[in-house]
Amino acid sequence: MLQYLRTGFRHRWLDESDTRRTIDNGILERLRARVAASETRHTGEIRIYVEAGLPLAYLWRHVRHRTAMATLVRERATEMFGALRVWDTEHNNGVLIYLLLAEREIELVADRGLNAIVPTQEWQGMVGRMADAFARGQFEDGLTQALEEVSVPLVTHFPAGSVPNPNDLPDTPVLG
């Protein structure tokens, strides 16, 4: 029980100011530029969402119902995928890169057009390779690696054509 309470406290202790300290304006601008550059090479849309801690409702499920943190992180990432309208692309090929600072966990949520082509093991491999950078607290490096790795299947399966690709979603990462 003590472990669950510690986890809950860690999530409630961190807030948006911690997110902004971790991902400062310089990092935010560099990530925005990298997303924009990536999107010139394919027709997909990539969003980055960085959150300090999970909302109280998620933590309650962790403490009260012993829901695994990995499950909660995945559910939150999926919720943010919808809230940020990453699914709202012409070819159903949007991807959300979700980082939860309290757990130093990353999730990749891809829309159905991309998930139909890219095997689950490939997504899991990407997440596994990025985990080292986040464990060391190298968030910009980890997010940059995530962006580069996510771009590969997008460029492979949804390359930019001769017709201009509209930028459906903002390129700037969202901090929560």
Strand content: 5-15%
CATH architecture: Roll
- What name does CATH use for the topology? Diaminopimelate Epimerase, Chain A, domain 1
SS-based structural class?
A: alpha/beta
Mean pLDDT: 90
If helices are DSSP runs of H or I spanning 4 or more residues, what is the number of helices?
A: 8
In angstroms, what is the radius of gyration? Answer: 16 Å
Number of strands: 4
* Poorly predicted ranges: none
The end-to-end span amounts to: 28 Å
CATH class: Alpha Beta
In total, how many domains does the architecture comprise?
1
Task: Work out the helicity level.
Answer: 55-70%
Q: How are the strands of the biggest sheet laid out side by side? A: 3-2-1-4
Fold and architecture overview:
This protein has helices at residues 2-13, 16-22, 25-39, 56-65, 69-83, 112-115, 120-135, 139-157; strands at 45-51, 94-100, 105-110, 174-175. The radius of gyration is 16 Å and the shape is globular. With 176 residues, the chain is α/β, with parallel strands linked by helices. The model has no long low-confidence stretch (mean pLDDT 90). The protein has 8 helices and 4 strands, in the order αααβααββαααβ. Strands 3-2-1-4 form a 4-stranded mixed sheet, sandwiched between helices. It has one domain: Diaminopimelate Epimerase, Chain A, domain 1 (Roll).
